[in-house]
Each structure stands twice: as structure tokens, then as C-alpha cells.
């Protein structure tokens, strides 16, 4: 009897050890046999945001964006705190290499032996050790590229003097309408996650490109262009960047060709070698911290994930993408080129994100491209979200500095959608990611009957523009604040402009307009305004037409009823005729 009990206890303890043991086979390997892993920490060593000034954690552009689109949230939060240095030191002493440090995930990705990872997993401050997921970039074999001479002739007969062969991809979603209103992306910062750019300094499509910063996460430097040891590592990024930012009148025009760009290289496309999600996570953190307003990612991860993992909560890239949205960034990602499967979704991470806008591909008539991935997500949400042209999109050649090609894939519908959103954001700078998603979805081609193929349908920027014009993004004044003044809408203005404001106590309010030299050019007069609701002063007709094109400052002055306290706030307005 005792022997049986001992045997049973031995078997029980053995099973426990197997369950708790370290399973090295789950982890991808490097060429020299080390394992790739995420080491996730339990905490940040007692650090809190009071220890840091915002400028120590973020660039000023990121601070400005958070204040504008997340004004009633803490400027920095727990996820912005650095990983606790003593934890890093301990991990560094036990592994072959630290690849990426992620503040948002409170984790590091490492290259280490199986024994080292097992030892790390036993440390008190380590929450868990996970595999770094691998995947090929969006399958090259499913991205069709045709020379210009072999592509079907789909050039429009109108507007070719300016847009050339790119007219159809822009016209389908309404870009020319916004261009006519003087919106080209000025003042908007767009972050690109891709594989670098072969011809960044040479292709004619990029002659007027405004690049704020670059970072190569593969090689650990700031050079995302072609070089002797990075030969042709940017064919895909060359094409996607030209789709959103190219500017060659009569040939190729990107929707947001006057925006500012941050370029993050997180993939190597020259082979079918799997690439890792940790570089993408590091890339989007870098973009957010450097002030990106919008992120366009034509990349995705599926090889090590199953359709059941596309639930908005599993993939590390998905978690990071949703965190970026929480911080006020509007994130677009290609839905994928995996086609349709009647039984399961074919999405790629992070397109499954709950806050990410996943973009499907259609042809120039708005019909779904057969390669475009479909939803719904594993937890039943409609995906993709929206669609733009992804079949025979006119883009820059990856290898010839003055040539262009036609390319097909959701890789190209995504930057078209992101570029269109940049124009809307320029007109309505305070638009939150949530409101941008509403504006695009509720005005798209199948808003009334979204489905798993195209979501809410093909984007309609003209309707989305008017949606934002009539839907205010306003927040109550901060605690202790007596007057809140919001950005003028639209801005730039040509036909009509509204200046919204709010007071917390019944007040007499006057709005004045000054030119760039400080001369008063207009006063709307003093009016009594009630508390705790949005009021507008509207400028239109001859009053607006009589203003010369240029930059103006509007000043809102309020005098509280009873106390007589006076408050003033101002904003900038651009008038274009």
C-alpha cells in the first residue's frame, strides 16, 4: 500500500514538473541555435509617473498630440514608464542578446539558450516567458507588380494633367475633393512601418518628401535606405510610401504628399526568411513617442498564429497597436492578402485589433479583390473595417528612380486610406481615433450593412468631411478652467468656418479675429452665453471672402455674469481662397 502511495506521489509530481517545465520547442531559433523569447516583467520596480517630467518620456510632438486628442486623460501613464533598469541588468547578464525593450508591454525580447530562459522564468520579478512570434511579411507572391507598359490601361480621362495614372485610386475614395479644399496633409505627422525605402533619396516621387526622422530596427541604426549591406531591403516600403506621399504631377500623386513622415524599418523583404513581431512593437512605440498622428502599416503576422488567435487580445503587435490608439494615434493596418475561407477568418495581426482600422482591397469600381483577407475576428467583431483601391495601384518602381509600376495587394489600400484620413485630420485636428473611425465607417459605401468582406465598405472622404463638420469633438473644460476654446472647423477655411467654445459659468463672450501682424480685422460682438454647452461663432459669406488668404488668430474673451471675472483663449485659423 505504501509503495503504491509513493508511486502515485512520484507520478503526480512528475506530471506537475512536465506541466510547469520549459518547452523549448515552442520558441523560434536564430541561425546559431539560440531561442527568441519575450521576457515579461511583473511590475516596473515601484516607478511612478511623478518621477518623470513628460519631456523625459516623450517628444514635444507626442505631448501636443495627447493634449489635443486625449485632454482629459493623464498626459503619461504606467505604460510610458521605462522598464526597470535593475530588471534589465539581470536579464542582460543571463542572455546572449537583448533585441528590443518595450515600455508598453513591460517586456524585453531576447536571444538566449533554453536553460537561460528556464532560469529567467523562475525569477521573482518575471511574470512569464513567451515565444517571439515569427511570420513572413505579407506574402510577396500575393503582391502582384506589373510594369507600367504591361498593366491594364485604367487611366481616367479627366484630371490627368495633375493626377495622371494615380487618379483612379484617389478618386475612388474622394481625395480630389479634399485637395480642392486646400488639404494635402500639411501639419499632420504620419508614421510608416515597413521594410525601408530603396530609393528614398533618389526616386522622383520623393523629391519633395518631408521626413522628420527614420529608424532601422533590424540593423539598429537610423538608415532606412539602400546601402551596400542593405541592398534591396526596401522594395515594399518604396511602393507603400509612394502610394501615400508620392508627388510627381501628371504621373503619381499621393493623398497626403505634404504631410510629415516618420519612417520605421521593421521588416526585411529580400527573402522569405521569417521576421519577428518584436521589431514591429518597437517601431510603433518609437512612432508614437516621436509624435505620429497616424500610423500606416502594410505588414502583418499570421504564420505562428491561428484564426482563433485573431481575437484582438493575443498577438503582441495587436496589443501594441491598440495601446497606440489609446494614446491618440489613428492606426491603419492592411487586412491581409490571404483571401476568403468560408469557415474561418483570414486576418493578419494586428488587423484584428479592437481599435485598429483594418483595410481591405477593392478594384477601381469598388468590387472586392479576391486576395483580400476576410473576418470576422475570433471574438465575433466585424473585420475588415473599411476598403480602398488595392488592385493595380500606381506606385513608384522599387528599382528605377524615374519609373512607375502597378501593384496589387492590401499593402496599397492601407496607405491610401491612411492618407485620406490625414487630410481629414488636417481639417479637423482635434478628431480622436474613435471619431475618425465613426466618420469613415458611417459614411462608407455599405455603412448600413457591413460584412466580413469589406466591413463598412469603400471610404468616402467627402461624406466623412461633412460628417466631421457637423459632429463636434469637444471636451468639458478641465477642472478649475472657466473657458474652453476648441479648434476652428474646418481649418483651412474657404467658404465657412465655425469657432466652438464653452464656458462653465453664464458669461458675456466676444470673439475677435486678428491678422498675423496683430491687427484686429473682425469682431463678432459681445453676446450672452449660457454655461456648460457648446457655442459657435460662424464666419461665412462676404465676411470670409473679404479676408485675404493667410494665417489669422481668433481670440475668445469671456466675462462672467456676477463675478465679472475675465478669461481669454485663442486659436489659429488658416483662410484659403
TrEMBL record:
Keywords: Hydrolase, Protease, Serine protease, Signal. Residues 1-20 form the signal peptide. The keyword Hydrolase applies. PROSITE patterns: SUBTILASE (PS51892), SUBTILASE_ASP (PS00136), SUBTILASE_SER (PS00138). The active site is at residues 194, 236, 411. Residues 185-457 form the Peptidase S8/S53 domain. One of its GO terms (biological process) is proteolysis. GO terms for molecular function: serine-type endopeptidase activity. InterPro entries: Peptidase_S8/S53_dom, Peptidase_S8/S53_dom_sf, Peptidase_S8_Asp-AS, Peptidase_S8_Ser-AS, Peptidase_S8_subtilisin-like, Peptidase_S8_subtilisin-rel. Belongs to the peptidase S8 family. This is Peptidase S8 and S53 subtilisin kexin sedolisin.
